[in-house]
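Most newcomers find our protein records easier to grasp once they have seen one. The structure tokens are whole numbers drawn from a learned vocabulary of backbone shapes. The record below serves as our worked example for the rest of this section.
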Amino acid sequence: MISPGVEIRDLGWDDNIFRVGESAGKVGDYTATLIPYVQASLPWSRLQFNGATRAAFNYFQRFEAIRSIDTDGSGAVAVLIGRVTPHVGGSWMNARHRRNFEIDFPVRRVDRSWDAGVDVNVSAKTSVGVITRHSHGRYTGETVYLESDLASLLDDETTIRGVGVRYALTPLTTVGTEFEQDADRFALAPERNANGSRVMAVIEFRPLALVSGRAQVGVRSRTFNDRNVAPFHGTVAHVDLSYTLFGRTQFTVQAQRDLSYSYRAGERDYLQTGTQLSVTHRIGTNWDTIGTVGRFNLLYGLGDRSERAEHVLSYGLDVGRNISRSRVGFQVGRQTRTSNFSAQREYEELRISSSMTYRF
């Protein structure tokens, strides 16, 4: 199967493209993003290849300096040998506009990773897999953000080794356990070097199940080589589940609780928690509406009881019409961030845009 397509999104107005407060010079611009993409799944004898790639052409009418072409892709090959399936894969990303809740400036980041492993079916319902993964990320171009050099603080290499057990509880439900050990190394900021481990309980529901998606809940630890920094031991979770009511209304819940490295020189990392709820409702045979609301928290100073926190609230509405292989939509979205320790981090953003997706 080869599935190409093209998407036009963010065609409209963004009243705060740099996500800054009023005092910092909030500015707006007309924007557009063109995204051609292709997905492929190719079986050949005992080989199975899966891959995807896309390019995003980001346009800004006034601010030519932040126009960019962002690319990303992934590929994997598996060999089916009886009960044993070795596999190898890789991914890359070269993007300027993949901003997160903490870094708001459009700065280019290049990520590359590869992984290899083997899965063994020990019975009709039980499988065991081992995997190793290595990734490298770096910032390029203008990398100074709020007096911090992102390249110096966040360029990293990560190695992960893990083992997992899966059990097919039903034809549509799989449960399992994963154990991973990770090592993060920062060439320009060795004080951030850290080792950690994670144990997760996993449940997966296939798309035809009443509830579909994947949920992971477990515990994680991280210890910095700098013994003056308190280690982290706590609960982490990643949830992405959907439920369809009467075949017309779909509820999707995404939740997260996990560690991320901070651009702040004195913070090392922070705990990001939050939940997002999306409701998609079909109206007739061609129209649909999508409502989304989410709230995420960035918690700093882990272990020192300083309670430094930032809160991001976002909500939006998307109304669209499906025509054959295409969808045309109109979106309105708003996002705000508040901080209890830095007023310059607070902002409000309103985006009014349209989109079009066509699948060949």
Summary: Helices lie at 150-154. Residues 76-359 form a domain with the Maltoporin; Chain A fold (CATH 2.40.170.20). The longest strand covers residues 29-44.
